[in-house]
Each structure stands twice: as C-alpha cells, then as structure tokens.
UniProtKB/TrEMBL annotation:
<protein>
    <submittedName>
        <fullName>Cationic amino acid transporter like</fullName>
    </submittedName>
</protein>
Amino acid sequence: MEKGSVMDSTGEQSGDIQQRSYWRWSKQDFLPEESFQSWANYRCALSQTFFRFKDRLISRSEDSNEISELRKQSENNMKRCLNWWDLIWFGFGSVIGAGIFVLTGQEAHEHAGPAIVLSYVASGISAMLSVFCYTEFAVEIPVAGGSFAYLRIELGDFAAFIAAGNILLESVVGSAAVARAWTSYFATLLNRESNSLRIHTNLTEGYNLLDPIAVGVLAIAAAIAMSSTRRTSDLNWIASAVNTIVIFFVIIAGFAHANTSNLKPFLPYGAEGIFKAAAIVYFAYGGFDSIATMAEETKNPSRDIPIGLLGSMSIITIIYCLMALSLSTMQKYTDIDPNAAYSIAFQSVGMKWAKYLVALGALKGMTTVLLVGALGQARRYYVREMTPRKNLLMLVSFLLIIIASSMGTSAYWGLNPNGWVGYVITVPLWFLGTLGISVLLPQQRTPKTWGVPLVPWFPSLSIATNIFLMGSLGYKAFVRFGICTIAMLVYYFFFGLHATYDMAHQQHKPEPMKVKNEDTTGKAEP
C-alpha cells in the first residue's frame, strides 16, 4: 500500500509521528482491544458472549462511518494513485492466470469436452452479473474494505464477517492453486514433467506432493504487493502486456492449427457436464472482487471503477471463450493434458518451441494473479429507519421466494438433468418474486453516481445463476465449505466478536473532559 502521513487520535494528519514498522509481533499489535488486555477481561467478555452477539447482530454501520471515521483510525493513509487504465490492467492481472491456463484443460478433459467454451459463457454471464453489483457497491462506498464494508452497513458485522471470511478463504485457496500451477508451467519451461519440481512424500494420494517453489513465489508476490500499490500496478501492467501478447499468439496459432474433427462429439458429457465445468471454471473469473477493494486508492471512483471492472471483465470473457475454443480445435479432449494443457497441445501439433512461449506467458499471468490477489487481501430497496415495516416484510418474502426457487431449480437439475416438470414450478416462482419487488416495492435509495441497470432483474438473475452453479458442485465442496465455516465461527465467537464489540463501543464513548491547570492544592484554576 502507498503510505502517507500517520493520523493522530483525532483523525488529523500528523507528519511528526514516526511510522511504525510493518513487522510487529507483540500481543498489543494483534489483540489491542480491551477484552484481551487481561485474563479477567477476557473471561468477562466470554461471559457476555450472547449479549454481545445480539448487539452485533442487530447493529449496523453507517456510510459516513465506513468512508470517514474508520479511515481515520487507519495507521497509514492510502494515496489515490490509480485510474481506470490501471484498474483495467489490474482486472487482467487478477483474473487471467491459472483459470484459463490450468482449469480449461482440466475441465475439458474431465467434464465438458469441446463444450468447455459454453462453460465459460455460462460462468462469464454469472460473473458479469456479480460485477454489476460489486461496481455499484464500490462506487457508493469507495473504501478498502470491499464487500465487508458494504455488508456491515446493510446486514451488520456477523453477516459481513462470514462473507469476508469466505472471500479471504477463496483468495487463500485460489492463490495456493495458482502458485502450484506456476510450478507446473515452470517445469514445462525447463522441458521437464509437470510434477518433477515437487517433493514426493508418503502422504495420502492427492496430498503427497510438497511444493516449496509455490511457497517462494507466494512470498515474493506478497512482498512486492506490500511495498507499494503504484509499484505493483506498474509491474502488473508490464507483465499483463506481455501476457496479452502470448494470449493473442495462442488464439491465432491455435486456430491456424485447428482440426474441426476434434470438436466431435461436441457434448460428450451432455449438458450436465457443461454446468459442472462452469461451476469450476467460475474460479477463472475470481479476482474481480480484489479490484473493488482498491476503490480507496482510485482517483475518481465513480468513473474509474465502472470502466475498470466492467471493461476488463467483458474483454476477459471474450478472450476466455476464444482460448477455450482454440484448445479444443487443436487437440482431442481425451488427449488434453490437465496440468499444462496449452503447452502440450502446441507440442502435439508440431510447435514444440511454442510450448516454451506459452509456459512463459502462463507464468507471467499467474504471477500477476498472485500480485493482485496479495494486494486485494491487504445496497438498493431497504433503508434503515426509512422503509415502512410492511414494505420490509414484503421485501423479505420476495427475496425468500427468489432464493428458494433458485435453490429448487438447482436441486431439480442435479436430481433430473433431463426433466422439465420441476422448472414449470420453480422458474415462474422466481419470475413472480422478482416481479413483485419490481412492481410493488418503491426503491428507497437511488445510487448517487452509478447503479446496476435493470434493477431488480439483474441482481435477481445473479442470485439465480450463482445458486445454480453452486448446485453443480460436488458434495465434497459443501463439506469443505461447512468445515471452514465452522472454523471461522469458532474464531468469531472467541475473538472476532469481542474485538468488533469493543471497537464499536469505544467509538461511542464520550471524549474525556479536559481539566484546567491545577494549583498545588489540587483545585482547578477558575
């Protein structure tokens, strides 16, 4: 992050205060709140867990608090140094990486076949609908907290913690996957097998390959991201520009060596395979939420964020579809290498030299994903105290109908992919729930500068498509999600809850009265 002058306790810039080092390990740095200052305080806090949870569940933050007050408490002020051009390239850098270079081959080989291009279309539409919503949030509340800040305002601390925890988990898992893919392509660049640079152990199959190179790449990317946002942007721009050249080469050279017979059969796994793959390759679009967290460092958020987010995602979706199609025409889906698909595909058509260029481009792409990912880790029909209770109840009812019908559609697809009777019930219910919001409920808030078009239809469609793709995931994904959520809840109830409670109530404490000079008797001078 770009560092400015340190702020004092009143929120004013104070140039005289020496900035503290990033590398700090004391208890006060990690647990500065009152509840953790002694074991007695902590036991007292734990005894009030239910009361504090209720307080945090019903309390809401304010726009002004997120935009102004919380920023004043930040130790380092963030400089507005990014424009829409930077954000477009950050979009490229954060999204184009392991997804297209790794997941395309994996999912074409295992689930979709040549129809992997349709999987990218489906997941791209779903991602774009989410991008519309993220864009409005980031423009309305241009702070570094991203979705955590938006949810604190609308749904409170608890919902914000769960969402932000899962986004952080996505970033951690995604970065780990990208780093491991980096090692595979680096091995290809050295003309070695994709797993040859990993340490083989006697652990369970699937967990028995240790990857020290991936750890080193992650550490370097994090160090660069911490050093400077501007420096990261410049490096990302250069690497993404090189990666873009490689991508155009892949598309052009791939189609030049196309064999249309490789597209037959186009749907080897049926429509079910398309959506199974779509749920996985949605990961390839992950990273756009990192751009939303950069709003606080953007010069003109109301102009730059919509152009940066929507512009980059539109172009990326087209690129993904063209790259997926070029891979499918070069090589039969049964022969595609899941680990280094493009490199091996070019080798199979006699362009052995091209695999090194593709591996280099993939490495650059995955490096920028790690850079922006490391940097990123660093509301509409209801307004509190304004919306009538009747309208609130109607809104909740319609939202439940939309969510339930979307879950029903996803469940019916999973149970009977070739059926149609269930959709006769679930799809009209979704339509009626959305129509009810559109016709019966007046909008309580109008976006100040930029808003999602076709509200509530686009947000409702975003809910439906995301739930549908989630339903296409295997049960193991939900088991892992449940385990991670339980771990997050344990942390929240033992630490996070008490930290946020202390912070919230510390903000509302009255300022201590300043006592005038006292004489030697201890009495204040008049």
